[in-house]
Write a structure and sequence with these properties.
Number of helices: 4
Strand order of the largest sheet: 1-7-6-5-4-3-2
CATH superfamily: START domain
Largest sheet: 7 strands, antiparallel
CATH class: Alpha Beta
Mean pLDDT: 95
Strand content: 35-45%
Number of strands: 7
CATH architecture: 2-Layer Sandwich
Radius of gyration: 16 Å
Order of helices and strands: EHHEEHEEEEH
Distance between the termini: 38 Å
CATH topology: Alpha-D-Glucose-1,6-Bisphosphate, Chain A, domain 4
Length: about 170
């Protein structure tokens, strides 16, 4: 099992960040553009006074070692289910891979904290577990690298979106 976290800062309020996080236009541009995913589809998006729920399916661009590619297969994709509790300000998510969903586990919690009048910090804590003989550790290391890279690109993209759309300080 591999646990790690990533932290990024944004030039907006937590409220603006959460709006962007669930915005379809932003996510389409992020996943299909900046992250170069061959496919990203929102299957379900529900919003209430207390919670936002999103279910997506994504096919990531795979830049992984040959052993990992062999285990995952050429048509790898994952479904992600996200629950954002508006009262606690925490978003819990889990990834369900198309390959070996009972052996490959990814989940995490994201929170956004204000760090000034018009800035916020995103902290995402991940747990990755690959219960696969011989290559489990390599799968976990590869998943961590892929997620760190994706979240770093995500942060650059979101900060650019904020600046380009005049959302700084909002």
């Amino acid at each position: 099992m591999n646990k790690f976290s990533v932290t990024h800062e944004f030039a907006c309020t937590p409220e603006t960040y959460w709006k962007l996080n669930f915005d379809r236009e932003v996510n389409d541009a992020l996943y299909k553009g900046a992250l170069n995913f061959p496919d990203y589809t929102v299957l379900e998006l529900r919003d209430s006074e207390t919670e936002t729920f999103r279910k997506t399916v994504a096919t990531p661009k795979m830049d992984v070692p040959a052993a990992v590619q062999k285990v995952l297969g050429s048509n790898f994709k994952y479904t992600e289910e996200t629950h954002w509790d508006k009262k606690t300000g925490r978003s819990a998510f889990k990834g369900i891979p198309s390959t070996m969903p009972d052996k490959l586990l990814t989940n995490g919690v994201m929170r956004i904290e204000a760090i000034g009048a018009d800035r916020c910090r995103r902290i995402v804590e991940f747990t990755v577990e690959a219960k696969v003989m011989l290559v489990g550790g390599l799968l976990e290391q590869t998943a961590e690298k892929q997620m760190r890279d994706a979240y770093d690109k995500n942060a650059v993209f979101i900060n650019k979106w904020i600046a380009d759309h005049g959302l700084t300080g909002k």
